[in-house]
Fold each of these.
Amino acid sequence: MTETFNPEAMLKSAGQASEFLRSLANTDRLMLLCQLSQQELSVSELEARTGIRQPSLSQQLGILRRQALIRSRKEGKHVYYQLADPRVQRMLEQLYELFCSPDGAMND
């Protein structure tokens, strides 16, 4: 960490931080964000890469969009999604380091 941890500052931002983490605390949403951290993808590409089927896919994308974590654009008949909040990329990198890298992976 570059800053000293300040509990008082966290207290002021606890609600916002909790809402942000709540958005990530769903396997489908987390996997959608992981895919979108790599590149912009269409709904059909997200479905193929994650295995999340309609209507669940649309529901989860809607939640992420309402939380302003992703944004969409329409091109012809296709809707494309990308990350909208740079904090998502930073959080995904931290989660990857903590849970997916050889040094951080939890042993089951």
Note: The radius of gyration is 16 Å.
Amino acid sequence: MKVKLKNMVCDRCKTVLKQELKQAGIDILSIELGELIVMDEASVSQSVLKEIAERNGFEVIDSNTSVLVENVKTALKKKVESLQGLNEKTSTFLSNELNVDYSVISKSFSASTGITVEKYLIKLKVEKTKELLQMGNKTFAEIAYSLDYNSGSHLAKQFKNMTVMSMTQYRKLQKWNRRTLDRIV
């Protein structure tokens, strides 16, 4: 049985859920960000699975639109986190990754979340920028380049629009104001 989950954003999420399911005696075939495949669906109560997921901050999703939106979020999170393939057009990347026409993706995402796919990607990039600034081992230009911005000033402008402070001001902060990726939208 394939189960789609909301709010899975990192490998730690997979580890926690895997341990919980194992303790409950539920055998899983595989677990990926946003998706779980249970080995023997006959032995698993849907309500038990839902309860375990919710107890750990995840949500079982079942509508086609919700599944599509979560797949978009997961694909974009992986893309930004890996810092690879960012130069590919978002529409092309998502259409290829999800095997769905981009107009369907865009309309479903906007209707469900209230923001565009592009705005969501910018928010992800700003959060990744915060992480890289906090680490302190890259220049602004290197950060901009790694996130596929044409210039550091373009990233700086988007960063300031989202955070109401410059990247320099943010780097100097001692209290980092970062959001977890599952709380962006």
Note: The chain has a mean pLDDT of 86.
